[in-house]
Amino acid sequence: MQKLWYGHSSRLGMVGGGQLGRMFIQEAINFDVHVHVLDPDANAPCKHIAHSFTHGSLNDYNTLYNFGLDKDVLTVEIENVNIEALEALEKLGKKVFPQPRVLRIIKDKGIQKEFYKEHNIPTAPFQLTNNLEEIKQLATQLPFVQKMRTGGYDGKGVQVIRTVSDFEHAFETPSVIEEMIPFEKEISIIVARNENGEMAVYPAVECEFSEEANLVEFLFAPANISTETENKAIELAKSVIEKLEMVGILAVELFLTKDGSLLVNEIAPRPHNSGHHTIECNVTSQFEQHMRSVLNLPLGSTDIIQAGAMINLLGEKGYEGDVFYEGLEKFIGKPGVHPHIYGKAQTKSFRKMGHVTIAGKDLNQVKSLAIEVKNGIRVLAKS
């Protein structure tokens, strides 16, 4: 008899216990899928809703290997993990999705860009550098974007180098140097794929970024693009996940240039900030779809139920300590406003503390209310 994927007989291991894992568990509970979590933060957002919680490093080989020994399936909510331990678990017959070889490609932005080049995936022209001296030799190519090859996350590890004086602030680590692209919009496509090769793709969303925090400030769904452009974006996202032969959910961030071309900016092999609205706005949320894909279940419908906007609740600059959400009560009674507070007790500048999705039938009305919410809620520290 085939082993059940639900109930006590099945153990799914989540490597990382942040907000993405928390929202994954909230969906998994509906299927009686038991999720066991490993995270280095003793008070991680997943701690109180996981079936079990292990406090430990994601980068320590023995910790991660031992965590995975009694799990049937392992998945991740962050790329910065010990890949060697996951490879060893895979050799033991554990199912690890996304596969460790895929994590190797994506974890290093240099390898990621080389993968695009080798597989004819359109992306911004780039060069790889090892140190600051090599970056300085590219002064004639200014301005350009510098991305740390490893370790960057949530807007960190990416910056624009506009002038020679900016070299003072350049990262001194191995980097990807990208040509600055004068794009018209930044859009995102989320695509899922299970072991059987079945795929499901979400409609494109449009992202607006905060330059100061280098994080998504607003997300609007559906994106205001032509049907032709959306179809091209969907096919490109499907091509990326197929060429990776990846199982799981993949966020594909794209630049739409002024001449109508699409370039892959970056990819993330996990649920993504650009898919949070799917909880309220699509038939199947990205978190449920992630679960379905790694368990090799039939994938759910990605159809839009209603239009949406998503706003990240970021820690106010200059505030650090016990969190206080100013203005939240003013909006939670308004139709279509859905807050998601991540359970982080401590705030600091630009830390992701939650998000708010605004959903409704009319995207223009949704956008208007989203701006109100953005200006009306502040994430502060208690005095």
In short:
The protein has 11 helices and 21 strands.
Report what the structure shows:
With 383 residues, the protein is an alpha+beta fold. The chain has 3 domains: 12-96, Rossmann fold (3-Layer(aba) Sandwich); 125-179, Dna Ligase, domain 1 (2-Layer Sandwich); 183-381, 2-Layer Sandwich (D-amino Acid Aminotransferase, Chain A, domain 1), CATH 3.30.470. Helices cover 26% and strands 30% of the residues. Strands 10, 11, 12, 13, 14, 15, 16, 18 and 20 form a 9-stranded antiparallel sheet that branches. Helix 1 (19-28) crosses helix 9 (286-294), helix 2 runs parallel beside helix 3 and helix 3 runs antiparallel to helix 4 (100-107). The longest helix has 18 residues, at 227-244. The protein is globular. The termini are far apart. The relative contact order is 0.12. The mean pLDDT is 95.
Query: How many DSSP helices?
Result: 11
Question: What's the alpha carbon Rg, rounded to whole Å?
Answer: 21 Å
CATH class of the largest domain: Alpha Beta
**Can you tell me the overall shape?**
globular
- Strand segment count: 21
**First-last Cα distance:** 59 Å
- How many domains in all? 3
**Relevant CATH superfamily of the largest domain:** ATP-grasp fold, B domain
CATH topology of the largest domain: D-amino Acid Aminotransferase, Chain A, domain 1
> Fraction of residues in helices?
25-40%
The mean pLDDT is: 95
Task: Work out the oligomeric state of the chains in this entry.
Answer: single chain
Query: What CATH architecture label of the largest domain applies?
Result: 2-Layer Sandwich
What structural category characterises the helix and strand content?
Answer: alpha+beta
Strand content: 25-35%
Characterize the largest beta sheet: strand count, sense, and whether it forms a barrel.
9 strands, antiparallel
Indicate the low-confidence ranges by residue numbers: none
